[in-house]
Amino acid sequence: MPRSRTRNAPETRAAILEAARQRFASEGFDASLSSIVADAGITKGALFHHFENKQALYLEVWTNLQTDMARDTQKAALANRSPDDPYQAILAGCRRYLEWTTRPDFQRIVLIEGRGVLGMTEWMSNERDVGREVVRSAIGYLVQRGLIADDRASTLSVIVQGALHGAGLALARNIDGVTVDSICCALDSMLRQMK
Question: Which residues mediate DNA binding here (predicted)?
């Protein structure tokens, strides 16, 4: 196995995370650490220098995907803010999230296997920290515009996040032939009825 003595710690960590993301996306949590270190061009010792165990590695890959999705979703929402139709921002963010759920790596690592690998408590904590904050921000924009009552924002954020998660799972599993477009159309109707 080739070793790179010139690779610094951040580069090594990035190589491990990329190799792990690819392996977890194609093989799930069953991917072997041997295959991950071979793909990254490092030793197991180097892997364990950066990650305590396979679950810690999976958590970081899961978190990175969630963080990248959240950043991309917020960027789409901000780019679509409109004084004429304030709902366009949240709808653009919802669409971008749903597009992420069609990515094989996001589907398998975040939506399908994440809860089982991380355990419900860890999964809920991280999902709340990343996902709900994005939704709260979008709902907060509608509150600022006077379209949603401030005292309902937190509850509506939970409902919207749950709807998006369920829709993402339906897309990942191809349930009832739903599409990003059909879900976005339904979300448009639902969101505009929230007060």
Answer: 32-51
